[in-house]
Structure formats: structure tokens, C-alpha cells
DNA sequence: AAATACTCACCCTATTAGGGTGATTAATCC
DNA sequence: GGATTAATCACCCTAATAGGGTGAGTATTT
């Protein structure tokens, strides 16, 4: 028989915390080892809980969830962190993932879906709520109506990689003056006059990655 | 009563094509309007099919799936494109999403899950197979053991945004010489001696976004 | 006590960036 | 078939930039 999956919750709202803990604990093979109201509260003893999965809220008293992620990863490198929050701002989602979260669920998620997500994350998946997945996929999508030509886009991407004109010329097997010419056209089209402005504008409008 | 969801498949393998078409077509509210063996084959008449969702394979004779995406989006701006393929290479996944795919499923996906994904994508979701979601989430994660300090990371990110030393100094309210000092330390730690190399290495190792 | 992080200072020079103006060829679009 | 766009290259100019060297103070963390 397999070992139970050990789960720890960090969530300040008592009703949500106890409610989810109860429902998840009832599932076969899942055990909610402990629940904490904050990271600062959890930090003392969470290592003894030996969790496989940590359900983490973002809006917490004291250390917030985003900041807690790298600390938890350091203390428990093997544990998977699943964000469970009402917050859906792009910035928070991407920061949470950048910091090491393995999944991101919003709080309207039914317990059954959370249980499934815990299983999924243990199998190397990346569970996300439907709306989160949409935002994540959207973040990859480029603008289909770019004013820049293919060559110009390519050169602007190399500029964003920090390359100098001469490096770009060498890498693309074209003359330095040609590169200059392209850059001038890029600046003209984007109505800017510096690398920084061109990159900022191009990223804002998803013209480059 | 609601209108049926109109689906078009582009898939060169006859068995997969006909099999999925049959199973999806049996579902209530879903109709597989037409199936094509390639994009080049589909391009002539697909606009008359008025699909809501296009199930698109990547490995196709003639125009491959990745290249077909922007063309399809241009012809049918309202249609959602779902990639359905055996390919799981990072590059292909990210290129497909960059080109405008709304979801990415691997071919072991059961028909029921595909039907669910079609519904999901119609509701603004971003359906992905478990392993795809993992790769996508992983692509956001930063290296937790960066040799760079916070300030150094911040400055390197600004360099990657194309800013000059003096611009960075102004934006961070520190002296130009301090910026220089940080950059020197960054180069020392990363063992490089140019912006381009620093950015490349930092991105390769996920030290910056 | 030692190491790291963050700050600033002054030496130096080759390279770079950006502006201006113009030209050729090829492809694509009405 | 005339016009626009893309891609290539040329030569004018100057202020700013990048990168290397070397050193040093303060504060925080270990």
C-alpha cells in the first residue's frame, strides 16, 4: 500500500482553511498534516511536518505568500507548492511561478479539483485554474499585426539580447551599415530613438519575446 | 437551444483523424464539420466550414502546423486553434503558442479530454496536457541559486532592457560609478566581459526573465 | 572576525550609438 | 504597371558608452 500524501495548508481565513482541510483530508490517500494561519507561524515547525505538497495562500499576515515561496523551497526542497488564492493579477501569478510555485489555483476551485491538482503536481504536472492557464498561454502569444518586418524583428530581438550592431552584422552575415539601416527603420516605425525605448515598446506590444 | 460547436480537424494520419472525428462528433453539441489531411488541402475551403475550433496537427505534409497557425488566424480570426500532436519539444510548444495557438494537447489524450478542452477554449481557457503545463510553468521558474545578488540581478535585468549605465543610475537613484561597480561584479561572477554574454548566460541559467 | 552587499571615485581608450541623406535590387500589392 | 515595402549597402558626423584597472567606505550577515 502506498504512503499517504502529506499536505500542509497555509491560509489565514479560518473558514476556508478548515473547510478545505476537512474535504481534502477525507479523500483516500491524502492527509492534511497541519494548517497554519501564516508563513511566520509555519516557519518554526513546518519542517517536522514533512509535507509533500503545500497549499499556500498569497494574502497572508506578515510574510506574504509570494515571498514565502523561496523560503519554503529552501527549507523543503522536495515539497511542491500549490498557490491557492483569490488574487489573479498577472504580476502575482508570474512572480509566484518565477519564485518556484508548481501550480496556481483560484479559490473558487472545488475540493475535488484541488485533490486532483495535488495528484497532478506529484506526477510532475503543472495544475492551473482555467483562467490562469489562459493568462499563461496569452503571455506567450505574439502580436500578429507587428509593424516590423521579419528581419527587423530578428534584429530587434538581437538588440534585446544585448548585442552591438557589429555583433549582429557578424551573426547575420550582413554589413554593419545594413544593420544600421534596419535599426533606423525600426526606430522610425516604433517612433523611438534608443535601444531601451525600442525594447520596452516592443515587449509591451508583444512584438518580441 | 444552443448552436453546435463547429470543429475542423487537420491531421494527416487517417486512423487518428477518423477516430477522433467519430468520437468527438458523437458528443452532444459538437459537430466535426470537416477533416483535412494538410493545411495546404484545407486552405481552399476551410473558410466555408466556419469552424469555432480547429484541431491542428504539427507534423503535416507541405506547410507544417506551426507555420499554418498565423495563416489560419488571419483567415479565421474568431476560431480557436488547438494543437494536437505527438511532438513535445520545448521549442515547438513555445513557437506554437507564440504564433497564436490557444491550447496544446498531446496525442495520447482521450477523446473525452479533447471534448472538454474544446469547451474550455471556447470559455476563454488555455487547455494543456499535464506534461505541457509542466514545461510551461517550468519556463517561468527562476534559478533559486543565483550567484547574483538582488541588486545585481535588478541591474542585469535593466541591461537586458537595453538601458545604458547612466539610464540605470538615474532610474535607481544611484551613482553612475555604482552601476559600473555592480556591472563589473556581475561580469566577474558570470565570467563574461560583455553585455551580450552576460544576458545570454543569465537567460540560459534563468537568472533573469 | 570575515565575507558579502552596496555604495562611490578617478584613471584610461577603443567602440558604439544615433542622426542625416541617399542608392540599388527584389518582391509584393493594388 | 506603378507604387509601396523589404533588404541590402555607403559615407558624412559627434557625443556618449562600454569595458578595464584599482581602490575604498559602510552596513549587514554569518
Characterize the structure shown:
Two copies of one chain form a homodimer. With 209 residues, chain A is an alpha/beta fold. Chain A folds into two domains: 136 residues, Rossmann fold; 55 residues, Orthogonal Bundle (Arc Repressor Mutant, subunit A), CATH 1.10.10.10. Helix content of chain A is 52%, strand content 13%. Chain A has eleven helices and five strands. A five-stranded parallel sheet of chain A has the order 2-1-3-4-5, sandwiched between helices. In chain A, helix 4 links the parallel strand 3 and strand 4. The longest helix of chain A is centred in the last third of the chain and has 15 residues. Chain A starts with a strand and ends in a 5-residue tail after the last helix. The model of chain A has no long low-confidence stretch (mean pLDDT 95). Chains A and B meet through helix 4, helix 5, helix 7 and helix 11 of A and helix 4, helix 5, helix 7 and helix 11 of B.
Short note summarizing the structure:
Two copies of one chain form a homodimer. The first copy, chain A, is an alpha/beta fold and 209 residues long. The first copy, chain A, has helices spanning 14-26, 39-42, 46-49, 65-75, 90-99, 111-122, 130-140, 150-160, 165-172, 176-190, 195-204, and strands at 5-10, 30-36, 53-56, 80-85, 103-106.
Give the topology, please:
The structure is a homodimer of 209-residue chains.
Chain A: E1 5-10, H1 14-26, E2 30-36, H2 39-42, H3 46-49, E3 53-56, H4 65-75, E4 80-85, H5 90-99, E5 103-106, H6 111-122, H7 130-140, H8 150-160, H9 165-172, H10 176-190, H11 195-204
Parallel strand pairs in A: 1-2, 1-3, 3-4, 4-5
Helix pairs in contact in A: 4-5, 8-10, 8-11, 9-10
Chain A binds a DNA duplex (30 and 30 nucleotides) through residues 149-152, 164-166, 174-178, 180-185, 187, 193-195.
Amino acid at each position: 500500500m502506498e504512503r499517504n500524501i502529506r499536505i500542509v495548508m497555509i491560509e489565514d481565513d479560518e473558514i476556508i482553511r478548515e473547510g478545505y482541510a476537512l474535504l481534502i483530508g477525507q479523500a483516500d490517500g491524502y492527509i492534511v498534516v497541519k494548517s497554519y494561519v501564516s508563513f511566520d507561524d509555519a516557519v518554526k515547525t513546518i519542517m517536522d511536518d514533512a509535507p509533500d505538497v503545500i497549499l499556500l495562500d498569497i494574502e497572508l499576515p506578515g510574510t506574504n505568500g509570494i515571498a514565502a515561496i523561496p523560503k519554503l523551497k529552501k527549507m523543503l526542497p522536495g515539497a511542491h507548492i500549490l498557490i491557492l488564492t483569490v488574487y489573479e493579477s498577472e504580476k502575482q501569478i508570474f512572480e509566484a511561478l518565477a519564485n518556484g510555485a508548481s501550480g496556481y489555483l483560484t479559490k473558487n476551485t472545488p475540493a475535488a479539483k484541488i485533490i486532483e491538482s495535488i495528484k497532478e503536481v506529484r506526477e510532475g504536472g503543472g495544475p492551473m485554474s482555467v483562467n490562469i492557464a489562459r493568462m499563461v498561454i496569452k503571455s506567450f502569444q505574439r502580436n500578429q499585426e507587428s509593424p516590423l518586418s521579419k528581419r527587423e524583428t530578428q534584429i530587434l530581438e538581437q538588440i534585446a539580447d544585448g548585442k552591438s550592431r557589429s555583433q549582429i552584422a557578424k551573426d547575420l552575415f550582413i554589413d554593419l551599415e545594413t544593420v544600421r539601416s534596419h535599426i533606423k527603420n525600426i526606430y522610425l516605425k516604433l517612433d523611438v530613438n534608443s535601444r531601451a525605448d525600442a525594447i520596452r515598446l516592443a515587449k509591451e506590444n508583444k512584438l518580441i519575446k
